[in-house]
Amino acid sequence: MFQNRYLFIFSFFAGILFSQPKMSIGMDLGYYKPVIPSSNENQIPLASGFSKDFLPGFSLYYQFFPGARVGFAHSFSYQSDKTKSGTPFSRILSYRMFQIETYYFSKERLEWNFSLGPIWNKGSINIDVEVDVSEWDNVLSGFSDGDVSIAVANSGKMTTSWFGFSSFIGLRYYVRSWCAVDIKTGFMNNYYDHESWKFRGKTVTGPVMNIDALPIVTVKVIFGW
Amino acid sequence: MVIMRIITILFIILSPVIFAQQKDAEREENPCSSVQIKKARADGLRSLSILEIPLYYYDAGRCMDVIQSNKVFEGIEQKQINADFTQSNRMQGWTSSFAYCTIILLATSYIDLSVSK
Prior knowledge:
The complex is a heterodimer of chains A (225) and B (117).
Chain A: H1 4-18, E1 23-32, H2 50-53, E2 54-65, E3 68-82, E4 88-107, E5 110-132, H3 134-143, E6 151-176, E7 179-190, E8 197-199, E9 202-204, E10 213-224
Chain B: H1 2-20, H2 24-29, H3 35-43, H4 52-67, H5 71-87, H6 94-116
């Protein structure tokens, strides 16, 4: 059955396609200094360099008012390494910012912007381990003459979410009317709780990370119309 | 029934494109007088819709080849930059209040961080 929601979606996208866009998309690289310690008890090795301090990301904004935009910015920190016992793992911290941004031009091509909004973050640690599963070995051995033992990949992920808010002041230079470079300095306040990670539906304790108050600098390339 | 509805909706969405554009032959002959270029010259680049933007840049490229100059399009670009500046060269009403809130929050966060260290 054709549902009304499809009509709504069609109308929504048709409106975007046929109206003045007032949208901008951006790619950005941020730099911050989180404290993510490691210890002898913690199997996760110490992150450093790009996997710790740099936040690549993207953003999407819509100008809803002269001098004001609303948008979404997503930055993430990614670490891919091996645990101290040699098992591959990956760690992702995603910072998802829902922002309102007001701006004004102090000179032609030169814009000051001010962003404020909540952030809904997510952290995940994924470990891929190979284990021997006796049931599979029994089944496979049953089809052949000798014993067969093949390791089976077993992937598990622990996740957590936490709330925060961000504030930024930026200086944007328009190289063209549709292309700009934006440098922002800002602050992220996070309410991270290392005791509220989830693993297979159960609450577990995760790594202690000191990310409550994080100054951040980002450089963005913006394309917009 | 469902297919008919989809076709009807697609027709409604696409009919402005199908019926409102210049004929291809007309655009091929004289790209400098395309609807998108005229619209951009009259009302600025931001008056173009997402569908019209690629057509504009396509026609602009061909027009520059014909007239061997990009001054017209540099003019359109500069006009848009001037318009953007004129439209938003000051903060008024709630936008300035919002900016002050951001500045205060940012300053407070930095001061709090430096004091806690």
